[in-house]
Amino acid sequence: MKKLLMTSALLLAANAAAQEGHHGTGTPDHVMDHDSLLTFLNIDQLEVREDDSQAFNGDLWFGGDRDKLWLKGTLEREEGETENAELQVLYSRAVAPYWDLQMGLRHDFKLENGPSKNWGVIGLQGLAPYFFEVDSALFVGEDGDIGFSVGAEYELLFTQRLILSPEIELDFYGQNDRENELGTGLSDMEAGLRLRYEFTRQFAPYIGVHRERKFGRAADFAREDGHETRETTWVIGLKAWF
Amino acid sequence: MNKKHKSSIALPQMSRRTFVTGMAAGAALLGATGSRALSSDHRPATSPQTLRGNNFDLNIGYTSVNFTGRSRTATTVNGSLPAPVLRWREGQRVTLNVNNSLAHDSSIHWHGIILPTGQDGVPGLSFNGIRPGETFQYQFDLNQSGTYWYHSHSGFQEQTGVYGAIVIDPAGPDPVEYDRDYVVLLSDWSDTAPDAVYGKLKNESHYYNFRRRTVGDLWSDIREKGVRRTFREREMWNEMRMSDTDISDVTGYTYTYLMNGQTPDANWTALFKRGEKVRLRFINAAAMSIFDVRIPGLKMKVVATDGQNIEPVSVDEFRIGVAETYDVVVEPEADTAYTLFAQTIDRSGFARGTLTPELGLSAAVPAMDYAPVLGHRDMGMAHDMGGMDHGGMGGMDHSKMDHGQHQMGGMDHSQHGGMDHSKMDHSQHQMGGMDHSQHGGMDHSKMDHSQHQMSGMDHSQHGGMAQGASGQYSLHGGRPELGGMQGAWFTEKLGRAGFGSNSPIVHLPSEYRYTVDMRAEQPMNGLRDPGIGLRDHMQRYGRRVLNYGDIRNLTPTIDKREPTRELQLHLTGNMERYVWGMDGIKFMEAEPLMLKYGERIRITLVNDTMMTHPIHLHGMWSELETEEPDYIPRKHTILVQPGSKISYLVTADAYGRWAYHCHLLYHMPGMFREVRVV
């Protein structure tokens, strides 16, 4: 897995070098001669949920127009305990006008109820027709496990600043994972409806509703453990970027 | 200020600053520059200082300014924003010692001046730039006269104030009669640092667009047209993932628009005496803002553009692209004040000044016009995009919408603004009061859209357009020995000099990349298009709007040779990613574009984006093909309308390395080429 990470880092470096351009060597620095390498931290969701739980969802990207290093993080806490913490480190390359191909590593952090786990990731992220923001990825675990996730988000503008954003994410697995309550086929769904007000583009508090549901074997595992298979909570949070 | 917008689209997010712009700004600048003393009636308090002679010492440094109520640091020349007016005389040699007091490299480019490449001031191409603390001496001969300007060509310093006017008085008598003249330099100021503005656009390209479609717009469309038709009309935009209100990348949300460095409230003021001929030298020195200029109550006689004298044209309004200049003569006949009104192309703000017989007088400031919405013609009828189902667009009368596409030359496209209102798409709805008889003899209404696609365009309407099979181009245009950039070069069946291109539209493979989100398949000729938002101003307001087809050079064309080859260069972009290029290639990826010294070529620019791009070629004139071969106007910057094409001739009469680029500052990192004449 470290190999994968190394590979993505190398790829990024190689690409950066390849983008040096035809005017670079020996001539003075020309402002238009190189990609401006930018870094942005996007906090998509930083929220408190009804049942005394908190969640963070966001990413950080660094790079130029075509090649980027992309970090994606998710953190969920419930009653003071971390329920879920994962980080993806991805090399992202623009492959089509609206699509980025992303490859790299995902690390699920060690939590109370389970071991840590590494996954290889290959994903496609972009903007689908009708303005759906789509993020999909195939995960291959170090133990051979397979997972697939697809998410889509939409924006409805009530005004230029009051924006309703429905979203949905579906997780599929190729195998059962009793410990983590994951089942073959469609395992989990998360859906949300968040209404934000953009005081600025970069600072937008929101309220919303968040729903989680388990299906099939995953639902069975949850029931066996005495956990809910469906959960709907109110949320209040912040979307921001820097 | 209570503004009544005619548009049904409200502009609720109009920046407060646009209207309540800092009253203190003028005063702050006064202190900062020390050059605004009331020296004479002719130069009221708010004009930038004018420097005359042949030797100039210019210092690029930092100056504190306040345009919005907040203090910011500008980069300025001699402490002045805009920089001092440089008044030269044709035939003289000027020497300019430019000292750089900034912490970064800097440079000055003399925009529109024909000079040796080493004097052109583009770091990396003409010289090494001016290092901090160093002085560079420019020296060149002036073989031209007219209105020009100068600005930094380093980083984004243009945005923060390094720009000023150049006026070159002719060696002989001036063909333009005037009693007094004023420079009217338009620009845009943001309190946000330009690098940050650029970054915001990269992370969220619609950052500054506060006119995006809302649920309310959707609801009123559905009420008006029904679900089915609304869905169909929106289909293309949805498929293409584009916004029809994406007119300006950076808007009045962050910009305060300036006239000679004054906010609208500070109200730059110029004096006249009744009966005088006043020559106004408009210069668009903005970073990102295209302006529509008018003076309510006064006809403007356009006498020059880009420094070159033209056959006078009387208009009520003209669009000035970034980096263009227009000289107009007005003759106020009343002892009243007039407002110089320059609204931005997206109507998100305006610059304003006053022409008055008496200090202290001012005239009403008009409301801004409706905000334009992009239509199909602005996309060059991109048939291949996103698997559009054309059959499903039955609700729209495509045959009529296409109308403009079928008349490549000689027709005033401004007449085409509205057409069939009942069937028009959203964008065209705002255009009222059309006289349908304008379309006489061009009734395509029976032509259905599917036939259109199969047969291509009706070539008989093209006015002698010789169609070669598409793809009859070569990558080096018969000059492979020059090396350099590959492009779509045509060498055969070229249209006659002055009449524009006959060549088919070709999209190179490099346009099928992540850098390109749209390709104009059937771009119309932009020559007679006054541009988005102006096309119906005659019908709506009775205003005569200038278009490029109106421009006729005052003196005969110098180089009357036919072009020997033609480069078709496509302006490309990806708005979502905020990436710009030519032929889908960014500057840093591109080889130089090679020209042979002495040759005369045609460049046809095809705009594969929905934005209006001002394209500037350094070192050589861009001779706009206006279908008047004997009086071809010479320009240095040419506006290319969205989804349209335009052609001009270039005589490669200047050796060396030259910049060739879109003058919208944040497009420059990609939409830029080196032109090398060997």
Per CATH, which architecture of chain A? Beta Barrel
The CATH topology of the domain at 470-677 in chain B turns out to be Immunoglobulin-like
The oligomeric state is: heterodimer
Determine the CATH superfamily of the domain at 470-677 in chain B. Answer: Cupredoxins -  blue copper proteins
**Low confidence ranges of chain A:** 8-29
- The first-to-last residue Cα distance of chain B is 57 Å
Biggest interface and its residues per chain? A-B, 41 and 52 residues
Number of strands of chain A: 13
- The amount of helix of chain B comes to 10-25%
Rg of chain A, please?
20 Å
Shape of chain A: globular
Instruction: Write down how many β-strands of chain B occur, each being a DSSP E stretch of 2 or more residues.
Output: 33
Determine the mean pLDDT of chain B. 83
Largest sheet of chain A: 12 strands, antiparallel, barrel
Give the low-confidence spans of chain B: 1-45, 382-470
Query: Tally the helices of chain B: what do you get?
Result: 8
Strand content of chain B: 25-35%
Rg of chain B is: 24 Å
What pattern of helices and strands is seen along the backbone of chain A?
HEEEEEEEEEEEEHE
What class would the helix/strand composition of chain B place it in?
mainly beta
